[in-house]
Amino acid sequence: MSNLFILLVDDETSFIETMAKRLKKREFNVISATSGEDALNLMQKNRNLDVVLLDVKMPGMDGIETLKKMKSEFPLTEVIMLTGHGTIESAIEGMKGGAFDYLMKPCDIDQLVAKVDEAAKKKQEHADRMEKARLEKVMTTHGV
Amino acid sequence: MKHDKEQRESYYRQLSRNMVATVILVSMTPMILVIVILLFQFKASYYEKTYAHLEELVQKHRQRIDGYLEERLANIQLLSASFDHEVLMDKSFLDSLLQRLKTAYGDVFVDLGVIDRTGHQQAYAGPYQLDNAMYDEANWFKSAINHPYYISDVFMGLRGSPHFIVAVRRFHNGKPWILRTTIDFKAFNNLVENLRIGETGFAFIVNKHGEFQTRPSSEIKIGTALDRILSHETNRFPEGVRVLAQKDPSGIPSIYVAAALKNGEWYLIFKQKQWDAFSDLTRTVHSAIAIFVVGSLAIIAMATVLSRRMVRRIRQADRQNETLNQQMIETGKLASVGELAAGIAHEINNPVAIMVEEAGWVGDLMEEITLAQNNDIDEIRRALKQISVQGQRCREITHKLLSFARKTDTTLKDVQINDLIREIIELSGQMAKYNKVTITTDLMAELPYVTISPSEMQQVMLNLINNAMDVMEKTGGNLHIATKMSKLEKDHIVITVEDDGPGIPEANLPLIFNPFFTTKPVGKGTGLGLSICYGIIEKMGGKIDVQSTVGKGTRFRIWVPYQKAEINEQADTKNKNL
Predict the structure, then answer these.
(1) B7-12 CB contacts, 8 Å cutoff, 24+ apart
(2) Do B342 and A86 touch (CB under 8 A)?
(3) Partner residue opposite B352 with nearest CB, options A21, A25, A106
């Protein structure tokens, strides 16, 4: 598998920086955003994103809202919610909104990597299936 | 505090007084007005009616008496006109005439006599020996000889018994002579005697000079009333009847009704004491007063009782309000503390997360670096690991704080009581350690879910546990919490919180759920904890009770109702299907 492309979204820059470094060290391609708007802009530019790690509690557009926009614009990209405590309900709401899973901050890096891999796998499966469907469609329309 | 209480008491007293006063005023005023107005109206019309009645009565009697006198006069006039002087001089004829008169009119006529102009009774028929009696000195004769007819006043005369005379003057050969008769006083008296009304109403006749013409049944004095009757402008007489209200000589207010008789020579006077004449009115006044008194008493009693009851209600409502306010403040405090805790926990959480990440990053970097001193590397790794572990611990603490101190809300949820209790015990664990209290539990597994507000239930459990710990503060002790299905109450879970502290004195036991009841020193307890617990449990449809023995400990029991079994069965089958 080629290096997975990850977007990190959190308003805490220190957290993002360290997390990015650690993930990069684990052979991930990482870009980061400090707000929901930023994240959506970045996604617009980087269509090949595999997984988004999204903090629930952010000033401005919060995690749930961002998630909804992401899911409507980029349905294939998988999102993992990161949550502080007391926002478990919103994390669950996030799951209902189409998030792949949620993790409690501070989280164990190995656990995180495992989740990201799973999410990427799911995304890949989705993409493959869609590719296949498209091919079939193309073939039927062309009468092959 | 005491001053405050006194102030409140006086406020309630004043409230009660005001209510009593208002009720009494509002209900008495119309009653008094109605009674007074009606009485006055009734009195006026009753006076009018009574006077009219008496006037009519006296008028009728006047006519009767006048008629009687006129009739007697007519009888004599007829006799004198029918027979010549000579015929009447015959004593035997006169006797027969008297006899005939007596048969026709009864014993009204006593005697008959013929008198010449000198006053010599020439002929006489009657029971007395009055033949040849001389009347020339008699007053009546002097008047009779000068008038065509004459009716005398009552007098004693020659015979020595009261009587009066009816005389007719005739002329014989140009010389006047008189036919006279004596009217029986008793028969005449009866005419007046019959006029009796009530206990004190009676009639009598007086002449112009106030001399009695009839014999009144009792000794009476007319006093000044007569003067007023006589001095009154007589133009209302003889037709008119005069009514006079004034005190009689003995000072009792009386009514005098007077009418002129015999062309104003006599007066028929009816006298009745006012209290007798208006006895119906007096009775009415008495019953009105009785009704008023009874009504007033009833109103006052009712006003007092009602306002007392009302004030008691108000006081209760006030107290409840106060409790509620306190409860609101309490929950408000809890809520804000919760929010604060949540905020702090969240704020701490982020830096902790960063710290843990940084430690992790250092760990990552350490993987590649090989330093000469292996011992140091191991030590650094151990330190990093420790940072990570402690970070996790921080996470747990903030987690607990957040999950407990979330907003106190009353939304109902299906709750597993045992989980809730474990959570609370975990929270109280630190405090228990300080107080040297050992908490033990005996929670029955597989209890049904109950639909309650978890925050409220937490509050109840916390209150009970904190109370227990407070009393065992100095000595330390055991706190035992148990849950099980209730045997006493159907479909209830029973939670028992039992301590082996000093216990509650028997006298205080009925009071402990009352708001503001506290045995803690001033400023330490609000006295609301248990009352809030009570309120919450009641609201859930449950029950709370207490048993305590001084020196042995206290046991609180809470019964919480759960939903019927079918729902749980459904849930079970669902679980199985999953």
Answers:
(1) B12/B311, B12/B314, B12/B315
(2) yes
(3) A106
**CB neighbour class for B344 (10 Å; exposed up to 12, middle 13-18, buried from 19):** middle
Burial of B115 (0-12, 13-18, 19+ CB in 10 A): buried
What's the Cα-to-Cα distance from B429 to each of B41, B439, B469, rounded to whole Å? Answer: 88, 8, 11
Distance CA B560, CA B545 (A): 12
Q: Which amino acid is at B140?
A: W
Render pLDDT for B238-278 as a digit per residue (tens, 0 to 9). Answer: 467 777 777 777 778 888 888 888 777 788 888 888 888 88
Residue B411 is given by DSSP the state -
Residues of A in contact with B352 (CB under 8 A): 106
The tokens for B414 are: 């299906």
**Do the Cβ atoms of A18 and B354 come closer than 8 Å?**
yes
ipTM field: 0.75
Most confident residue range from A88-97, B258-267, B382-391, B515-524: B382-391
- Interface contact flag, B354 A18, Cβ < 8 Å: yes
Contact, B103 vs B166, CB < 8 A? no
Distance CA B242, CA B234 (A): 10
The 3-class secondary structure across B193-235, one letter per residue, is HCCEECCCEEEEEEECCCCECCCCCCCCCCCHHHHHHHHCCHH
Tokens of B540: 């859930």
- The residue assigned the tokens 């503390």 is B337
Interface test with A, best of B339, B347, B349, B397 (most A CBs within 10 A): B349
Q: Which pTM value belongs to this model? A: 0.46
pLDDT one-digit tens code per residue, B114-168:
888 888 888 888 888 877 888 888 888 888 888 888 888 887 777 777 788 888 8
Rama region for B247: left / alpha / beta (φ>0; ψ in -120 to 50; rest): beta
Residue B569 contacts A where some CB pair is shorter than 8 Å? no
d(Cα B292, Cα B34) in Å, to the nearest integer?
Answer: 10
Q: Which residues of A touch B392 (CB under 8 A)?
A: 106
The nearest CA of chain A is from the CA of B408 a distance in Å of: 14
Q: Are A57 and B402 within 8 A, CB to CB?
A: no
